[in-house]
Write a structure and sequence with these properties.
Two copies of one chain form a homodimer.
Chain A lengths: L2 H9 L6 H14 L5 H6 L7 E5 L5 H16 L4 E5 L4 H14 L3 E5 L6 H16 L3 E5 L10 E6 L1 H14 L5 E4 L6 H16 L16 H13 L6 E4 L2 H13 L9 E3 L16 E3 L2 H16 L7 E4 L2 E3 L9
Parallel strand pairs in A: 1-2, 1-3, 3-4, 4-5, 5-10, 6-7, 7-8
Antiparallel strand pairs in A: 9-11
Helix pairs in contact in A: 1-2, 4-11, 5-6, 7-8, 9-10
Chain A binds a DNA duplex (30 and 30 nucleotides) through helix 1 and helix 3.
Chain lengths: 330, 330
DNA sequence: ATGATCTCAGTAAACGGTTACTCCCTCTTT
DNA sequence: AAAGAGGGAGTAACCGTTTACTGAGATCAT
């Protein structure tokens, strides 16, 4: 019994007599044999894994992207590698290099990013380096790159979501909306800010710069910025928080100040994290299809690899989820 | 310039002249060369990845285990594979097989499990199969297996946590505690139930079976079971929820029934998920060191592989976090 | 000057599979 | 009965690295 026979028996792509097959199977069973992926990858082709590169896996929304990626990858017979960068570009560089070595089918980068020149240069490099290695760079939740690069981009409608959220507040009669925006330069910040200002214009409400407080998308920052706004005596009857985490912090600050939500102040978030409905009041927010984002990213990359085509740029829509944190002004 | 020279230059473990090194580096640069892990793994040794096998990545607590695993693995130069089973044993079988093929250094199985005979048989098989492939099975959040198997177990103190939680309620004067326990047979359920009953005994309070409502650890189930308890007219002044998700559901049901928490009913959860502090009232709960669980799992498995030793069984402690959801009875 | 030593590059044998190619044996077909 | 067909097994090349071994030239000691 030669190795070739064993290989063919296990692959099942070549005629093998029933008796031989049985003997092979018995041996496999007895020896607890499993093929060596590395050896297999060296000769016959092996489906490369999908890599997910993310700032931090524990974020309630990012975890859903991860789940989407994992599911779609698993459905297509791929393994998922997940790596956290903790926002360290050097680590990101290392990971991209690693993924080339690993022959990953797709490298999915998730999360907003500051769109400066350095960033664009890095991404361009990643895209071409990965492409040369037969891998595909996928950007999720970030705008496309300028120029003609081998990249797949899966975005969601930040601008539209922010517009809807703001419109909802303005329609309820709120004229002074505290906008807890994101870090300046961050793509999601900018886009949500755009949507916010667009809605103001559409309603003929002036944009008040002093009501636009930028900061990181964290609970703590939401809390601090709201406290600060209150302390500064800013006049507002509603808050549009850049994310649900920020909204959560704002909620805590408002409550501490003895203000009722939505009685005294209305609030809208962004993301629709799982516990948004469990806050009190249940948070009105913009749903982002996080899981879909992950699935789509993998689907597009793999379809392209399998030459079925596959788009290079998709924008998923967001949707306002109305709960109890907004009340109309009399 | 032979391949050997290139290999040695890149490895840096053999004398290479400065001039040759420069030529090699230039070529590497120009061709965007990266080593092929598969080929490397076939000859020289390569550090195997760590595999995380989990029911579902999106759970707020499980995501932290994943983060812990990823971090510890990354710190030790390993890649992390994450796979969801969605509670399908067949999928789990496949994954263990896959991980043997992948030469994973460790396979970490996370989450409580129903400890029946079939389960024990499966785990015993996984343990020996992985061990034979040079891989280590690590069970996280589950009790050890009977017999002498090659397994590493990282548990946390469910019993002690449940004891503390219950003790806290009883000390506050609550005599009738609705216990929203977990699915019967599930290891975490059983252990938390043990701790609960132990605390009752310690306080000389009778265990009332009708106040022990088992069910899945989901928000929906917590909501339904609480509603049902209320509808049945059960007398209780406090709720001990098996998990924070269950507590969240219970909170919603109590609020709907017009009951104030903690004014009318006190409540304690289990897990200390990130948003527990943001519920109103902020949830008193038992903190489980999820991230540590993940880190420890990887650490033990890899230390053992590197022959530094490494324990085979560790129990991490839990801790009651007192917030605002419990009030003492007058 | 000559052998010993050292430095550094090349050769070739693994590593564990897959697969094109070869070849033998049996079963048909005429 | 001889030739052809086809099933089923073995042989060997190849995938991309690493590394023990070989050996050529330079340097050094005697």
């Amino acid at each position: 019994m030669s190795v070739a026979t064993v290989s063919r028996t296990l692959a099942g792509n070549y005629p093998v007599s029933t008796e031989t097959r049985a003997r092979v199977m018995a041996a496999v069973e007895a020896l607890h044999y499993v093929v060596n992926v590395h050896a297999k990858a060296l000769s016959g082709r092996v489906a490369g894994p999908v890599a997910l590169v993310i700032k931090d896996i524990t974020g309630p929304s990012l975890a859903h992207v991860a789940a989407g990626v994992e599911q779609e990858a698993a459905d297509r017979g791929r393994l998922s590698l997940v790596c956290a960068t903790h926002d360290d570009p050097a680590r990101e560089d290392d990971l991209v290099q690693l993924m080339r070595e690993q022959h990953a089918a797709a490298v999915v980068l998730v999360g907003g990013a500051v769109q400066d020149e350095a960033y664009r240069r890095r991404m361009a490099e990643y895209a071409t380096a990965l492409d040369a290695a037969g891998s595909r760079l996928v950007l999720v939740g970030r705008p496309p790159l300028p120029g003609d690069l081998p990249v797949t981009v899966v975005e969601y409608d930040n601008r539209g979501g922010a517009f809807q959220a703001t419109d909802h507040l303005l329609t309820a009669g709120h004229q002074h909306v505290l906008f807890l925006s994101g870090a300046p330069g961050l793509s999601t910040s900018e886009q949500r800010g755009d949507g916010f200002r667009h809605a103001l214009r559409a309603h003929g409400v002036a944009y008040q710069e002093e009501l636009d407080l930028p900061g990181p998308y964290t609970r703590l920052s939401g809390y601090q910025r709201t406290k600060q706004a209150l302390a500064a005596g800013l006049a507002f009857t509603a808050v549009f928080a850049g994310t649900d985490m920020v909204a959560t912090g704002a909620l805590a600050a408002l409550r501490e100040a003895g203000l009722d939500v939505p009685g005294d102040v209305s609030i809208v978030g962004f993301d629709d994290v799982p516990f948004a409905a469990d806050l009190s009041p249940a948070l009105t927010t913009v749903r982002v299809p996080y899981e879909d984002l992950g699935r789509t990213a993998v689907r597009l990359a793999l379809e392209r690899e399998e030459r079925i085509g596959g788009d290079d740029h998709v924008v998923l829509s967001t949707q306002l989820v109305i709960r109890q944190s907004v009340r109309a002004l009399p």
